[in-house]
Amino acid sequence: MSDADDWPHDPDGEEGSEGRRKYGHAVLAKKIDEDEDFPLTAEEYVADYGDHPVRISYEQVVSVEEIFENVEKEEFADFVEFHETLGEVMRENGYWFYEGAEQFVDA
């Protein structure tokens, strides 16, 4: 999906990245409730949000499903595990735009 008209909502709107204030990992995390949604399976998450846009950088938008193609973990016990897994997958697959991200890979 590359044409903005193909997305279920504007990646820079309130449903997407809050007017471009939230990118990548933050967009994925804000779709879930830390207290109510766990344990959570990758399959459930993709079924609910797979076609949603995630802005990776000022020029790249991908779908949630595209990011999850590289997730091997089937279930997340809690919010921390979800965060760690997705952060690692995004860095390993070029979906982490933040300058200096490489310094946190082995942290």
TrEMBL record:
<feature type="compositionally biased region" description="Basic and acidic residues">
    <location>
        <begin position="1"/>
        <end position="21"/>
    </location>
</feature>
<protein>
    <submittedName>
        <fullName>Uncharacterized protein</fullName>
    </submittedName>
</protein>
<feature type="region of interest" description="Disordered">
    <location>
        <begin position="1"/>
        <end position="22"/>
    </location>
</feature>
<dbReference type="InterPro" id="IPR043903">
    <property type="entry name" value="DUF5785"/>
</dbReference>
<dbReference type="Pfam" id="PF19098">
    <property type="entry name" value="DUF5785"/>
</dbReference>
